[in-house]
Structure to design on (432 residues):
């Protein structure tokens, strides 16, 4: 492992990497319940989607681990599964088989873009200040997700969002978990995030937040894939305008969610080189594309790099051994799903908040005195939580950076690709 993952060179060890991998898994295990629940609204079999979700997450994460050697985990993405369910199937009244075929085609296109290094070029040519802003923006975004999951932040008609009921049991569990994790981190306790999740889960038992179902069993065989795997529509059905609009939308969101996540997590962990580039980024992007194709074949929505990977990085994960651990945990989850299913969102919420704190430190590396750098960076940071989308934050950052730099006499700072992306983003808002 030392030779393959270069643990000493990356200033880490086996224990740290394994704990980090478990921590990442614990912060994203909710996808094993959320994704099947959401996709089943389209008529898909819940059990089959559960197995497809766990399998695709495990396989894609192991590819990331062994091929790209990064501590990034993958799974069917939130937002992308919502588009699959509520926009394509319910809104456009398309079959889930139609949507699944669009995901497969998107993955194939991603492979081609990866081989042509188009996605790598996009990653490399995003200015360093925006990459730092992406890191901070993701921090705010996942903190908001955590606070929302715990009921601490809620929807509010008068002010859009507002403070929830802090006396509710879920809020109490999350707040106590947050305090525990902060104390453990301040005292330099290894595995603080994982310990915090376990303690919060235990606290939730007497409060009714953590529930053990009747007849609870730790071990069970995974549900069959027969009702969801390889269920694609005939070729004749994909030659339509609606199909390709769906594919393009999947492509857009996935490209910039992935690029944003990689940039943000890599920036926070010091993996970017002096030019702001991520070594082996093409391998990371290829792992993402292969994961999407495999996931579509198994029967789930688009697989993407998860922002919760930052939890494992914050716990000390620096190499592919972290994601090997996470990938194995997803495979094992196929057989011990009931055990992980009892972990409430309130127990993982404080982890997301603490990781958000860590990722905000990137703002110190942005030149706030130069408004041509500061305004795009701020828009990138602000729009991620406000628009509830990593991709939209990147859109606002890139378009504003291009226009402000150009019209203040600093056009040389803007690459041709930045202009191309800006034009495409504007056209997308007009026509899609």
């Amino acid at each position: 492992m030392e030779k393959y993952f270069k643990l000493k060179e990356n200033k880490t060890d086996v224990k740290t990497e394994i704990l980090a991998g478990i921590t990442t898994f614990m912060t994203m295990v909710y996808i094993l319940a959320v994704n099947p629940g959401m996709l089943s609204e389209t008529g898909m079999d819940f059990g089959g989607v559960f197995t497809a979700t766990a399998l695709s997450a495990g396989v894609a994460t192991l590819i990331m681990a062994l091929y790209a050697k990064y501590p990034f985990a993958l799974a069917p993405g939130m937002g992308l599964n919502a588009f699959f369910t509520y926009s394509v199937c319910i809104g456009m009244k398309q079959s889930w088989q139609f949507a699944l075929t669009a995901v497969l085609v998107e993955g194939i296109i991603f492979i081609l873009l990866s081989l042509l290094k188009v996605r790598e070029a996009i990653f490399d040519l995003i200015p360093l200040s925006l990459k730092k802003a992406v890191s901070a923006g993701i921090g705010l975004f996942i903190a908001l997700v955590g606070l929302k999951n715990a009921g601490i932040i809620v929807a509010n008609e008068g002010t859009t969002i507002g403070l929830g009921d802090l006396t509710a049991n879920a809020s109490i569990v999350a707040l106590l978990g947050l305090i525990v994790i902060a104390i453990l981190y301040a005292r330099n306790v290894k595995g603080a995030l994982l310990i915090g999740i376990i303690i919060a889960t235990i606290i939730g038992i007497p409060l009714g937040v953590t529930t053990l179902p009747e007849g609870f069993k730790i071990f069970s065989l995974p549900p069959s894939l027969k009702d969801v795997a390889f269920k694609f529509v005939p070729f004749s059905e994909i030659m339509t305008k609606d199909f390709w609009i769906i594919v393009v939308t999947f492509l857009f969101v996935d490209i910039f969610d992935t690029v944003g996540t990689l940039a943000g997590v890599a920036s926070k962990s010091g993996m970017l080189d002096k030019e702001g580039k991520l070594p082996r980024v093409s391998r990371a992007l290829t792992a993402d594309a292969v994961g999407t194709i495999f996931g579509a074949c198994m029967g789930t929505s688009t697989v993407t790099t998860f922002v919760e990977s930052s939890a494992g990085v914050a716990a000390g994960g620096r190499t592919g051994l972290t994601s090997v651990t996470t990938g194995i945990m997803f495979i094992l989850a196929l057989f011990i799903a009931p055990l992980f299913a009892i972990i409430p969102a309130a127990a993982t919420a404080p982890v997301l908040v603490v990781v958000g704190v860590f990722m905000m430190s990137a703002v110190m590396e942005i030149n706030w005195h130069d408004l041509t750098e500061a305004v795009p960076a701020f828009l990138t940071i602000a729009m991620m939580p406000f628009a509830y989308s990593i991709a939209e934050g990147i859109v606002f950052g890139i378009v504003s950076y291009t226009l402000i730099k150009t019209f203040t006499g600093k056009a040389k700072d803007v690459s041709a690709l930045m202009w191309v992306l800006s034009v495409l983003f504007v056209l997308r808002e007009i026509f899609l």
User: Anything to note?
Assistant: The chain has two domains: 7-133+152-357, 367-431.
